[in-house]
Amino acid sequence: MRQSALAVGLTALLLASPVAGAATSLCEGAERVIFACRVGAKLVSLCEAPTTGEGGGLLQYRIGRPGRMLEMRYPEATDSDPDFRAGSTTLAGGGGAWVEFNRARYRYVVYSFLIHGKGEVAGVAVEAEGTRLATLRCRGPAISVLGPDYFTAAGLVASSGEFLP
Q1: DSSP at 17
Q2: Do residues 112 and 99 touch, judged by C-beta distance below 8 A?
Q3: Strands 94-103 and 85-91, how do they pair?
Q4: Residue 155: is it exposed, middle or buried by C-beta count within 10 angstroms (0-12/13-18/19+)?
Q5: Residue 56's pLDDT band (boundaries 50, 70, 90)?
Q6: Cα-flanking dihedrals φ and ψ of residue 10, to 5°?
Q7: Which of 69, 98, 123, 155 is packed most tightly, with the most Cβ within 10 A?
Q8: Alpha carbons 102 and 79: distance in angstroms, whole number
């Protein structure tokens, strides 16, 4: 009986606790974590590399499994003129903010919202021609500085579109 209680306790501890040393973002070294969260076994991150000029640093979106080759990063060296845009909205009982970019025919939206009755809702959505193709919701809390103060400091252009999670 004592062994089964111990086994149940250890199992509950392992399921409830993040893996020791588990990565919380895909950002590196001196990069600032603008947004990061777990979406299943993957991490989604929006990282800002420091620059010497005015305004914000250089943004890069990343998704993948920690310790493995990234599934996607934007911009890549082959992407000319990366175009990150930002938006925010107020809702009855909450609101949120997002950073978006287009790659080929797809719109990627990294978002963080506070919704009355649901709490934090964050993740990344992928759309094509105005149709939502996928929504990867964060599992657990997100690290996020998304919002008008950050957008102004980073010099991000305002989004011409709307977004709701």
Answers
A1: S
A2: no
A3: antiparallel
A4: exposed
A5: low
A6: -65, -40
A7: 98
A8: 11
